[in-house]
Fold:
Amino acid sequence: MESNVLKKNINIARMYYPVKTLGPGERIGIWLAGCSRNCKGCISTDFKSETAGRRIEVGRLIEMIKKYFLYDKELFLTQENRFSDLSNKYESGEGKDIFTEKRCGVTISGGEPFIQPVGLNALVREIKKYTEDIIIFTGYLYEELLEKKDENINQILSMTGMLVDGPYIDNLNDGIGMRGSSNQRFIVLNHPEYYDHPEKWKRGIQGAVYGNKIITMGIPDKI
Ligand code: SF4
Structure:
């Protein structure tokens, strides 16, 4: 069973640490590829195509996260050689396990994470062994996810700390809070101690060099 979970595939477009604009503290950010919606004003167009990502076994992804080095502030999914160097350092004892060094949450976004219920279930199940501070952004309403009566989705929700739900609606973008538009809700499903009044969290954007380009992460101000 355990090895089956680790062998599930997930289509991931980007992973980065530290993300400071998508939840409390310094987080691991994971963006999954693919979304069939067409929200006007979507800021995640890079991740909408399923071909924007790369399929990777969940076990391999978790291995990459665990072997991440706090003193090396960037984690590139796309640079395998560089990751191998880091892994070697970790194996030799030079590196530190991010999850044991300090409490570190994970934010999963996209794209639409819930179009990959099998892979997402496996990913969240594995992440939960290290941290229960798991935030997921979805274009679905919470009620729509429940109505699917999908065992994988129900299991994901039972392990999720906080869900930010609902599609982005451009004319409801009020410029306030860590969500794109005012219809989106912060639904704390587990561990309320991690999510203190999320409706008051400020939105912000963080820039970073990712591979050979500059990226931004977070929720931009209303233009
Ligand atoms: S659900 Fe999110 S990723 Fe998909 S189109 Fe809407 S804003 Fe973009």
About this structure: The chain has seven helices and nine strands.
